[in-house]
Amino acid sequence: MTTEVTVGSTTVQPGERAYGYLTVGQLAAGTEVRIPYQVLNGTGDGPKLCLESTLHGWEPMGAEIIRRAMQKVDPKALNGTVLCLPLANPFSVEFGGTVESSGMRVNPADVLDMNRVWPGKRVNGWLTEQMAYVLWNEVIKHCDYLVDMHDGTGACDELPVAFPHAFPSDPSAAIGGGVADGIGGDSSDVNENLTAEAMAAMNEKIRELSIAFGSSVIWWREQPINPAMLSGQAALNGIVPLVVEAGGACTIDDTIDQGVDCLLNILKYLGMIEGDLVLPEKQIMVDNYVVYRSLEGGFYVQEPEIKLGLEVKKGQLLGRVVDPLTSEIKETCTAPANGIIVSRRVRMPINPGGYIAHIADTDAITWERENS
């Protein structure tokens, strides 16, 4: 039997949708620090699913995907509860910007990466830690599943891609990574009693969720879990996490609606809404995915045939970095692997280290499926 759900100061009855803000505090001049949320409380029994986006302000397109997807969900026909945090780090959206994007990766108030401070701190914590603490304790830790949404930043567009991060097979190597610079120590209550059986069970749930997402490419990673990252902290607390990316360049294009289909696939897979999964003709899972960055700065001129989803050969020309004054070719950019273009630069100015492309390595396919 479903019951009412309370988030912050908002109580949502079965079959209802509500919006509100989580209050964290205020800045020096009195600006209120608050984080928006949406809650859909269903009429049938089901899981609690958290849809979160924009830990990094230069990746805001997940918020638009969540908005569009939830407009297609009727709470009266929903099983379980969906808790949405579309703008988890709002100051990083509203302030800053670089050649790469209109927002910032970090919170401009304390220059911390929100994806390195989980589960946050209320006492002796920087603002970003306090924001994470509120998000974790008010919403995320009460959920059964988490979809952590990212995108191609303000410089690149991107196909929907699942990035499942699973436990390694060796329990002694289960936990690794570190916290953000400047927060003064580990921010996590790490479960040191992980068993191989528990990790294998979590990995299977993550794997099945990543396939159900319905992206054409899945990048499977078995690496030590970083408890300071949201997905890692969730997995260590028994919440099934899935990191995904979709959209980018702060642009509304067809990857946004593709992302909506994928997000609704998660709800269908979990039995929260009715309907068949919307799947591509073919899905592949790889264990190698190349993030290709520039060496030089200038203007990036892409080859006209380089499109999202294009299969390229190692050494194929992707584009050139040119001097914006003299037209001198400063760098010739070629594909570092055989693979599929998942994300590509669409913004002309580029600094050294700027994204050129993300390529799913088709020589590293570990699973594939044809969908009828």
Uncertain segments of ≥5 residues (pLDDT<50)? none
The rounded Rg comes to 21 Å
The CATH class of the largest domain is: Alpha Beta
Order of helices and strands: EEEEEHEHHEEEEHEEHEHEEEEEEEEEE
Distance between the termini: 37 Å
| Structural class category | alpha/beta
Give the full name of the CATH homologous superfamily of the largest domain: Zn peptidases
Q: What order do the helices and strands come in, and which of them pair?
A:
Elements (H helix, E strand, L loop, with lengths): L4 E3 L2 E3 L3 E11 L5 E10 L2 E10 L7 H11 L7 E7 L4 H5 L32 H12 L6 E6 L5 E3 L2 E2 L2 E2 L29 H18 L3 E3 L1 E2 L7 H7 L3 E6 L8 H16 L12 E5 L2 E5 L4 E5 L8 E2 L4 E6 L6 E6 L4 E7 L3 E2 L4 E7 L3 E6 L2
Parallel strand pairs: 5-6, 5-7, 7-13, 9-11, 10-12, 11-14
Antiparallel strand pairs: 1-2, 3-4, 4-6, 8-20, 9-13, 14-23, 15-22, 16-18, 16-21, 17-20, 18-19, 20-22
Helix pairs in contact: 1-6
Question: What do these coordinates show?
Answer:
β3 and β4 form a beta hairpin. It is globular, with a radius of gyration of 21 Å. The longest helix is centred in the middle third of the chain and has 18 residues. With 372 residues, it is of the alpha/beta class. It folds into 2 domains: 282 residues, Zn peptidases (Aminopeptidase, 3-Layer(aba) Sandwich), CATH 3.40.630.10; 74 residues, Beta Barrel (OB fold (Dihydrolipoamide Acetyltransferase, E2P)), CATH 2.40.50. The strands form 5 sheets. Strands 3-4-6-5-7-13-9-11-14-23 form a 10-stranded mixed sheet, sandwiched between helices. Strands 8, 15, 17, 20 and 22 form a 5-stranded antiparallel sheet that branches.
